[in-house]
């Protein structure tokens, strides 16, 4: 399963910038639908396109492995 670290990246950026960052702000800046961001942040196992991942990496200025983590099925809680 892929785990998206969107919430962690948002929290890090909020801390660095000393302000609240909304999903709407990210959506507008990155060119991604707000609903897609909400699903990424809250829905386990949500499926996204590589274009969305590319845009988010560009927005957060991060590498893909900072945004997405692979967790083998046997490590997932049942």
Structural notes for this entry:
Strands 1-2 form a two-stranded antiparallel sheet. It is mainly alpha-helical and 78 residues long. The two termini are 13 Å apart. It has one domain (2-62): lambda repressor-like DNA-binding domains (434 Repressor (Amino-terminal Domain), Orthogonal Bundle), CATH 1.10.260.40. The mean pLDDT is 92. 56% of the residues lie in helices and 8% in strands. It comes from Pseudothauera nasutitermitis. Residues 21-67 form the HTH cro/C1-type domain. Pfam families: HTH_26 (PF13443). This is Helix-turn-helix transcriptional regulator. GO terms for molecular function: DNA binding.
Concise synopsis of the structure shown:
GO terms for molecular function: DNA binding. This is Helix-turn-helix transcriptional regulator. The chain has five helices and two strands.
Draw up the topology in text:
Blueprint: E1 2-4, H1 6-17, H2 23-30, H3 34-42, H4 50-60, H5 64-67, E2 68-70
Antiparallel strand pairs: 1-2
From the 3D coordinates, which CATH architecture would you assign? Orthogonal Bundle
Strand content: 5-15%
Coarse structural class: mainly alpha
Sheet with the most strands, sense and barrel status = 2 strands, antiparallel
Number of domains: 1
Number of helices: 5
Side by side, the strands of the main sheet go: 1-2
Q: What are the segments in which pLDDT stays under 50 over at least 5 consecutive residues?
A: none
Mean pLDDT: 92
Order of helices and strands: EHHHHHE
CATH domain class name: Mainly Alpha
CATH structural fold name: 434 Repressor (Amino-terminal Domain)
Tell me, what's the shape? Answer: globular
CATH superfamily caption: lambda repressor-like DNA-binding domains
Helix content: 55-70%
Radius of gyration: 13 Å
First-last Cα distance: 13 Å
Number of strands: 2
């Amino acid at each position: 399963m892929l785990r998206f670290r969107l919430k962690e990246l948002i929290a890090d950026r909020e801390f660095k910038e000393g302000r609240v960052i909304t999903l709407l702000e990210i959506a507008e800046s990155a060119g991604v639908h707000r609903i897609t961001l909400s699903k990424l942040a809250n829905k386990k196992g949500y499926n996204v396109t590589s274009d969305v991942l590319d845009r988010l990496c560009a927005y957060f200025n991060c590498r893909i492995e900072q945004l997405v983590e692979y967790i083998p099925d046997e490590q997932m809680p049942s």
